[in-house]
Amino acid sequence: MQEADINTPTPSIPAAIPVPSSYGANNIQVLDGIEHVRMRPAMYIGDIHSRGLHHLIYEIVDNSIDETLGGFNDYIFVSLNPDGSVTVIDRGRGIPVDIHPEKQKSALELVMTVIGAGGKFDKGAYKVSGGLHGVGASVVNALSEWCEVEVYRDGKVYFQRFERGIPQGDVKAIGSSDKRGTKTTFMPDHLIFKITEFRKDIIIDRMRELAFLNKNLSITVQDTEGEQEIFHFEGGLKEFVQFTDQNRLSLLKEPVYIYGERDTTIVEIALQYNDTYQENVFSYVNNINTQEGGTHVTGFRKALTRTLNAYAQKNDLLKNLKLALTGDDFKEGLTAVISVKVAEPQFEGQTKTKLGNSETQSIVETILNEQLSEYAESNPNVLKVIIEKVKGAAMSREAARKAKELTRRKSVLESSGLPGKLADCSINDPEHCELYIVEGDSAGGSAKQGRDRSFQAILPLKGKILNVEKARLHKMLENEEIKTIILALGTSFGEEEFSTEKLRYGKIIIMTDADVDGAHIRTLLLTFFFRHMRALIDAGRVFIAQPPLYLVKSGKEQQYAWDDDERNSISESMRKMQKGKANIHIQRYKGLGEMNPEQLWSTTMDPAHRSLLLVSVENAMEADHVFSTLMGDKVEPRRDFIEKNARYVRRLDV
Hints:
single chain; alpha+beta; Heat Shock Protein 90; Ribosomal Protein S5, domain 2; Rossmann fold; 3 domains; nine-stranded mixed β-sheet; five-stranded mixed β-sheet
């Protein structure tokens, strides 16, 4: 492993930050123990699969980020080591190592072994913190086969090793050094995790995001081959917005940037408009991605609508528009990043995804209103472009309203209010009902015959649905296949009317052929759900069916295979039972319609034997980037993406 020197300067990063002397063992407050972390790891990290595995890195990095927020750190190094372990190094103050006055143990040992032991609970140690629960390092330690910590502090190097959370000796001074900071290396416990291999691309997405949010911070990620990627963005949120919109045509020369402070709250916003019809707003509190928004987002939306509307009225830019503008009209083509630093954030629920501080809303509103008004007066040409975009959105909204009214009237005339091509199930308990969205009439016919009619409904689609990435709302609602999906789901449509409580099926399962056309249809459907019914994905309602690709036969014996490796393994196994005399016959299913109803049921639709992929969004920014790349207007980014990722495709017939 190529080890990073924690004192090695990086471009545009200062080599040293003054260190206060008040951060010591008495700043570490103990709240609870970690007795059941290993027994119930999902309570602390979400799951024991890929998501939870990568969460271990984020917990350690978050401690370094908290040092950055306090003004004590400017550099983070993350290394994926060849042996499967991970090393995180920072240039912060270093975890205190002196003896805690109450617990009579070193502060380092308490931080690594006791849940809730951390300086984040002491207002004198951290004014702003992301890892508010203070469980990070101790949980990572408890879920690791081994963990080693080196602390560079007060001219010395301190070391302690742990195995499955248990100290293997006291903290020891093992040398002297003028470095400062903390180096943590841990090996995920294979007894806990189903997956122990880290993915570089997932880690890079999060580290890039953190570098955007902290413009004074440089983050280096090193893979197992020693290759490094360095993330440092002096433009901060402005570069964040430009990166997000790199596959779209921006209507502004550069993003609008807002910065302000009120009391102990810091507000930072960057925004711009592009030529697409989607909205992309990403919000953060102390570097935590608040996927459900909160008061800071509410304040942003109110101030944006009020300020731009007032400017348009004042300058007579709406004289040819017969509609009153609404908040939704200002969303079309908007890309924005909202980042607030709050001393004592109150999050709704345990997931830290929605901010609840009421005072934050008024602070964001005030700062954005003042500075955006000044920007508008100084940039009249830019505001004219934005208002024209908003007016177009308003006219599209009115056209969409008429299209929805037409859809409602049509559904009332139908006896059941459901699309005629839908083969519905007999029970009406949504939690036990499934809707298969199937490609084509042929596959639809097999699915209808092979299903369990009591709880499985089939909706065959004719051809490819509209690419909603490149269409306004009213055009989308004129598309017959999309209208059919909306009617079948029962959720209605639009922010004001959409409701997951009206959903008629607990599972929505996309089932398409394993060829290029099937992959395209699946991507079109996922784009629709991500852009216009994201709540269904967040609720864990959307799945992808996994039909087999092959049927391998030898005499009376037959087995299904889901990829080439499994096909080869089955074939080889059949030859060894039959001592090399087997006559192997392999059938390749290019389409679902090639399977008879019994085969489709037993392999793909029977809950006892099928395999479903849950569609989830771990990183909203990266998901937006992928959809805009694959489904947007620009060809070159799409070609680059396909060339880069083609080797990962496993189930595609070309």
